Amino acid sequence: MKRLMLRFSPGFLLLAAVSMLGGVAHAQSEVFLCVDQNGVKEYKNTGDTKGCKRVSLPPLTVTSSGGSSGNKAPREGAASKPAASTPSDFPKVDNGTQKARDNDRRQILQDELKNEQQRLANLKKDYNDGTPERQGNEKNYAKYQERVASMKEDISRSEKNIDALNRELTNLK
Q1: What is the distance between the terminal CA atoms of the chain, rounded to a whole angstrom?
Q2: 17 confidence band (pLDDT: 50, 70, 90)
Q3: Are 170 and 131 in contact (CB under 8 A)?
Q4: Looking at the predicted structure, is the pLDDT value of residue 6 above 60?
Q5: Tens of pLDDT along 102-111?
Q6: How far is Cα 49 from Cα 36, in angstroms, rounded to an integer?
Q7: Beta strands at 4-6 and 41-44: parallel, antiparallel or unpaired
Q8: Pair 32, 46: CB distance under 8 Å
């Protein structure tokens, strides 16, 4: 299976950003399609590597909507958009139902947090400060090191999950 990777140089990205800020701009640059020895395709703005071919693209025109936060006065005759509002037929939930849903959500998050904390405690116990016991199938030291690295990643992931759950609980009303 071939992968398609897009990589742009900082100069190309700067050109794109400046084009977006400038109202209407025309961006014209050479684009090259490069294929490496593994068959991975990559688009670049320079064709300095082997296996690159210039790609002809139609001109790119970027227009700005003028929605910047500067001190611009509205144009004469420009219709202002009304603020987004909830449609009248949109289903509404009463306060009691919403409070029950929020309580259910809080309880679910607290249960997940408790389970994740227990999982972390078990992982740290098995990790044994970076020196877990070797298993019978780990006669090869490289296999042992792989398992230790995997355990370390699992501990890190579990700690991040706990942080995320705590943030969610803090954000609840």
Answers
A1: 47
A2: low
A3: no
A4: no
A5: 999 999 999 9
A6: 9
A7: parallel
A8: yes
